[in-house]
Amino acid sequence: MDSKPFGVEEVSHLALHVGRLLFQNNADTAHVEDSVVRFAAIFGYEAHLVVTYETLLVSLVSGEQFRTKVGHRIPSMNVNMAAVTAVDRLIDDVESGGLDLPRVRAELETIERHEPVYGRWATVAALGLTAASLSRLFGGDWRTFAITLLAGAAGTCLRQELGRRKFNLFFVAFATALASGTIGGAAVRLGMSGTPALCLVVPGMILVPGVPLINGIQDLIKNHMTMGLARLAMGALITLSIAVGLFVATVVTRANIPVNESSLLISLPEDALFSALAVFGYLFLFNVPPQIAWACVVCGVASHTGRTLCLHLGIDIVSGTLIGAVIVGFLAQWFAHSFRAPAVAFSFPGVVAMVPGAYAFRAVIGCFQIVAAGPGAAPTLVTGTLALGFSCLLLVAVIAIGIAAPLILTNKGTTRSSQKETGAGK
Question: Could you read off the pLDDT of 35-50 as tens digits, one per residue?
Fold first, then answer.
């Protein structure tokens, strides 16, 4: 636009609002930057965005006009795929010429105030089902299914209540893991499960911050080093809080989480069924729009059942996880094109069941046991703990690489400079 009916102040304010909505709802850094650059370019401005873990800073330039604006502090980040999808579609509508700036401002405010798609109790029930389904995917019996359903639902209810009361993020993770782990541990002490370790570990798995961990790796891949490290540090600290909560639960209930324990492989049809059910909780938790929910279920089944097939064929779990994540990466790009929605809306719910939360918890608990044993720690405990830690790191890394594979192979999403030049030339 050569003639600018709206000044740089108004455009910079709305560009910052676009970036903040995407960032606080856990879009990756490249997505946030490209969206802000694209929005500003529509109105003839060249945008430069600086993203830190707590706030955003945007500068707009066009001719003699220049404006730098700092956003409000972002206290925490949620995962809200409905908001991310709505912002992306809004930018598409602005680019097609259907909206002016006053309408854009109103739409952004509506997106920010919009209530969650799914109700509180529906989310509690769905995440309980997710925990129970995960227990079956790891070879748990039907009694464990019932115990983890109850523990997962109770933990989710407590998590929502503590979050509503603005408790510290790490305390929420610790308290929720302690409560759900205590329920599972009590059931183990009463002899109600034939797979006792799963009763303690699985309810904590639905708390694992899979999206920040995966986003952190993707930020590193795309050379956003500071944000990548910040996301990984936050995800690691939350995971540590969960592991400490589970450890305290084992102390309280005197139940045991063994460090060295292998999971049972289930049949492919059973894996497909419970992979689909496991996705539902994440659909509700991530506020995925209902119209694309079925596509997320397809991605979840393709990833986890694809990995299980690889394990049945004798392929190691790291390679199998990479194959499953690559499948989801390409499916997500295809669904994104078909539904005019961001690929992350499909990929994150699709792969989060593969995030190695159980590995991380058992590795941390192994570290506690090594410290308690001191120099007399058994070699099998030390080697088992190290193996779990390295496996956890590798699995998170290959999941992120697999999701990013279509962008890496086609070099999409990495042409920010060319977008700037296009915007500046308008």
Answer: 999 999 998 899 999 9
